[in-house]
Design goal:
mainly alpha; globular; 11 helices; about 260 residues; MetI-like fold; single chain
Length: about 260
């Protein structure tokens, strides 16, 4: 740590817990407690029950969770592919062109996501490309919204990458394609897995653009959580939120293990 004295470290730790517990940990604990409650009239929930989780296993929530996972996985793969390709291609461009390319990728992040949803709805509601009312338009929206993070992550990793590895392989007669697949991409694998995890987490929680675009047969779980809480079913919505958080954390844990193995390589 940058703080070396013991009293100063204790002060930093105390400040961290004073900020972390009420701002981050306590709201999550409240959601978890509400998911097991049937009523909440006092300081603590009452009427402990597993009915909300049984409803998730038996109702449409399981399909909504699967829809969110498929959407997030597909959007993450598409975003990682597009962002990595653009970052690799930008290495050969001039500084001004790279800045322009970065700005184009960051544009969907700079505007509200509801604007991105509206733009896709207007653009793809008529032939020749008709996506309105299909799952593809939801996946496209999620891809557009998370590609910027994949592109920026890979761009930063490329800036830190030692060019000696690529130059040594090229000097030994390796072709550019071989250098890319066997040297450059393996070195970028930790950053690629980190970008994939970030894209997946962001896609799993995306709501604003999804509400504008989703068809009735492709409802991601955040939309169902919003619908449940909007009609007053707060405890059922809390259980859905816990299911969403748990699934996201499990996938991120798997991605982190892949990243750790990639780092050792």
């Amino acid at each position: 740590m940058l703080v070396h004295s013991r009293p100063a470290r204790r002060a930093v730790h105390t400040l961290f817990f004073l900020l972390f517990v009420p701002v981050f940990a306590l709201p999550l604990l409240v959601i978890v407690a509400a998911s097991f409650a049937s009523s909440w009239s006092g300081a603590l929930p009452s009427g402990a029950t597993l009915a909300h989780y049984r409803d998730i296993a038996q109702g449409d929530a399981l399909n909504a969770l699967l829809t969110s996972v498929v959407t997030a996985l597909t959007a993450s793969v598409a975003a990682l592919t597009a962002g990595t390709w653009a970052a690799l291609a930008a290495e050969k461009l001039g500084r001004r062109t790279r800045r322009l390319l970065d700005g184009l990728f960051l544009l969907p992040v700079a505007v509200p996501s509801v604007v991105v949803g509206l733009s896709l709805l207007v653009a793809f509601s008529r032939p020749p490309v008709l996506l309105n009312g299909t799952p593809q338009i939801v996946i496209t929206a999620h891809t557009v919204l998370v590609t910027a993070f994949a592109h920026q992550s890979v761009t930063a990793a490329l800036a830190r990458l030692d060019p000696a590895y690529e130059q040594s392989a090229a000097g030994l007669g390796a072709r550019p394609a071989y250098v890319l697949w066997r040297v450059k991409l393996p070195l970028l694998l930790p950053s690629l897995t980190a970008a994939a995890g970030l894209c997946f987490a962001l896609s799993m929680g995306e709501l604003s653009a999804t509400v504008m675009l989703y068809p009735p047969d492709w409802m991601p779980l955040p939309v169902q959580i919003f619908a449940a809480t909007d009609r007053g079913s707060l405890f059922a919505g809390a259980a859905l939120a816990v299911a969403l958080m748990t699934t996201t954390l499990l996938v991120l844990l798997g991605v982190s293990r892949i990243r750790t193995k990639a780092s050792y390589r």
